[in-house]
Amino acid sequence: ALLLWDMDGCYQCTASGGIPQGHPLPAVPNGLVSCACFSTTADWVAVCVGNETLVFQTESHSLDTTLVGHSAPVTCAAFSPHHSSTIVTASQDRTFKIWDLDKSSLVFQSSIISG
């Protein structure tokens, strides 16, 4: 299971003598998580598993969007520092994709990057 931790909540919990607990993210399949990253506003966390990127809302811990389109495992993801609803994913299929989470849509897809 992949756990999401609220660091402020952990601090408050331990300060009052409690034991902090992480929040499991639902729908993360068993498998290799190759990347996890937060949006700049910390509203979303993106988790790359296999050929997909799962995007969760951090407040509710619920699955918001599943980004599907790569033909090989997604190796990294990064949110735009200027537009928190824009995320870029890159994959072993040698492409990168730019997504708009507000519209749940693919904005741009690169051609195959040769090396």
Descriptive tags:
single chain; 115 residues; 4-stranded antiparallel β-sheet; 1 helix; 10 strands
Structure description:
There is one protein chain. With 115 residues, this protein is mainly beta. The chain contains one helix and ten strands; from the N terminus they run E-H-E-E-E-E-E-E-E-E-E. The protein has a four-stranded antiparallel sheet, with no helix packed on it. A hairpin with a 4-residue loop joins strand 9 (96-100) and strand 10 (105-109). The longest helix has 9 residues, at 7-15. The relative contact order is 0.15. The mean pLDDT is 92.
Q: Could you give the topology of this structure?
A:
Elements: E1 3-4, H1 7-15, E2 23-24, E3 33-38, E4 44-49, E5 52-57, E6 62-68, E7 74-79, E8 86-91, E9 96-100, E10 105-109
Antiparallel strand pairs: 1-2, 3-4, 4-5, 5-6, 7-8, 8-9, 9-10
Give the DSSP E fraction (strand runs of 2 or more residues): 35-45%
Oligomer kind:
single chain
The residue-averaged pLDDT reads: 92
Structural class: mainly beta
Uncertain residue ranges? none
Helix content: under 10%
| Rg value | 16 Å
Query: Biggest β-sheet, characterized?
Result: 4 strands, antiparallel
Summed up, the helix count is 1
Number of strands: 10
How far do the termini sit from each other? 36 Å
- Spatial strand order of the main sheet: 3-4-5-6
What's the overall geometry? elongated
